[in-house]
Amino acid sequence: MTLFRNVVFVAAIAGLVAGIALACMQAYATVPLILQAEVYETAGGGHDHGAASAETAAPAAPATQQAVPAEEEEGWAPADGAERFLYNVLANVVTGIGFALVLVAISEFAGGIASWRQGVFWGLAGFGVFTLAPGLGLPPELPAMPAADLDARQVWWVATAVATGAGLWLIAFRKSLPLTLLAVALIVAPHIVGAPQPDSFESPIPEGLHHQFVVAVTVTNLVFWLLLGAVVGGLRGWFSGEAARLRDSFA
To answer: Which domain holds residue 122?
Structure first.
């Protein structure tokens, strides 16, 4: 029970710190780009990433049906400014805690993260698994950009993360040529299959704006994962040291 409590506590603190840091970075690096893209989205009539396939398959509405105003069609969204920032902080903290739990749980199978320096390397691995590898096939999207079916993208994203994580694990902890070749095959396979792509790539978003957004998302996520790994490693190392001191004192 003590180990489980420590794991949850470490993940909660690390997720809180990294999530707040990510939200602050996004406020200056990615949110302004999203707001610029929303101007193009409004001017171009908008684009619903999740409903693209549903719109083509759904039957036309009866001619007598009254059109719903655009304000009623859109769901609730936080207001720009402080409210949007606070909701972004909350979402990033929850996401950070979830990723920290995954990081701590997996690292414990390898003996745990002993220090913040080891945590940085684990953070780099997390960045590669959850950001870099999926981003090669599904780069971050701005509003009004076309996208493939949501379910297909989610399946490919999860499969890519799992395959990349398994491949890195085999390379790091299983020193044999056959397993190394298997690891390389796992890492490369999702990209050979290819990520789901939209039917058309036409978009009102300027290419330069999208490029800036991809770079900003990649850099902010890199810092997020480095910080998450370092905090997890530092706290876990501190708990391990405290436990060792307690055992020595009782002895």
So the answer is: 2-48+77-147+198-250
Give, as one character, the DSSP assignment of residue 74.
Answer: S
- Measured CA to CA, the distance from residue 64 to residue 210 in angstroms comes to 41
Task: Identify the CA nearest to 135 among candidates 191, 207, 208, 212.
Answer: 191
State how far the Cα of 109 lies from the Cα of 87, in Å rounded to an integer: 34
Q: Is residue 71 part of a domain?
A: no
**How does pLDDT run across 139-153, given as a tens digit for each residue?**
999 988 888 999 999
> What's this model's pTM, rounded to 2 decimal places?
0.81
63-106 residue pLDDT tens: 333 444 444 455 667 777 788 889 999 999 999 999 999 999 99
Segment (H or E) for 217: helix 207-250
Please give the tally of structural domains in the chain.
1
